[in-house]
Structure formats: structure tokens, C-alpha cells
Amino acid sequence: MDQTSRFTSLQTSSLVLLRLLIGWHFLYEGVIKLYSPSWTAKGYLLSASYMESFFKWMAGESIIPIIDTLNIGALLLVGFCLIIGFKTRWASIIGIGLLLLYYLAHPPFPGYPQGPSEGSYWLVNKNLIEAAALFVLFLFPTDYSFGIARLFAKPKTVSTNPIP
């Protein structure tokens, strides 16, 4: 049964729109990185201001090609799944994980330098907000109301048992 069936069409449409917008953001970021041969996460990881040793390890020469590939692949996968409406709960979990890693590399904590961003933040930044939005999508998936998952949904069966 579709979990959003108890919502109005406006509420469901709003959740679908949120899913599509976040999906587009992830897909676009993945495509841009994929087609930019010089792109690497190394600079972002080396400039981490929190959990520095973990992020510096991720930026190591032997592992950075794997990290870059996983980052691009995850962005593309999350974006694609959210846009087409397939496995959106899994996509939301993966997206939340990515965004929390981005958040922890350069958290807007008092006393820490601001990382690469277009603004000033305090405790909350766009990575944390988008992770929270993905959590909402995880809790209220819309892939069966608008998405290809609907094609794989089992049809509702009507019981024809006579009343004794």
C-alpha cells in the first residue's frame, strides 16, 4: 500500500517535488564531477577542519581515486533513483550519509574555520538541511505514488470470501 495515500494530493505532490529537486541536485553534482577530468575531492578533504585525521586518510594518494569514484557514483545513483522514483528509501540513506560526511568535513561549529561555502553559517548549513529533507523523504517515500516503483507494485487483491 502506498504510504502517502493518507495525504492530500497537494501534500504528496510537495513530497514528490522535494524528491525531484534533491534528486536533480545530486544528479547534477555527479554529472559535473564525472565530466570534469581534473576534479578530485582531495582539496576538500585535506582542508577538513574537523576529524582531520580521518579526512586526511581519505585524501591519501592510494585511496583518493577510490573515494573520488565512490563519491561520483553515489551522487549519480542517489540522483537517478530519486528522480525516477525507484528505491528512494535506499537512495535517501546513501544521500544522508554523503551529506553528513560533507557536513563533518567542514562543520559550521563555533571556533572552527568556515570551509568552502558561499555564506556564513552557524551550526546549520545547507548540507545539514538537505540531509534533514532526505530524512523526511525516507520517512514518507513517494516512489509508489509517482515513480517507476509503481510499475513493480503488487496489485491490490480484493477478498471474495463469503461471510459465514
From TrEMBL:
Q: Which GO terms describe its cellular component?
A: membrane
Subcellular localization, as worded in the UniProt entry: Membrane
Keywords attached to this Swiss-Prot or TrEMBL record, sorted alphabetically, are: Membrane, Transmembrane, Transmembrane helix
Q: Where are the transmembrane segments?
A: 7-27, 63-83, 90-109, 129-153
What membrane topology does the annotation report for this chain? Multi-pass membrane protein
- State the InterPro entries in the record: DoxX (IPR032808)
The source's superkingdom equals: Bacteria
> What is the protein's name according to its record?
DoxX family protein
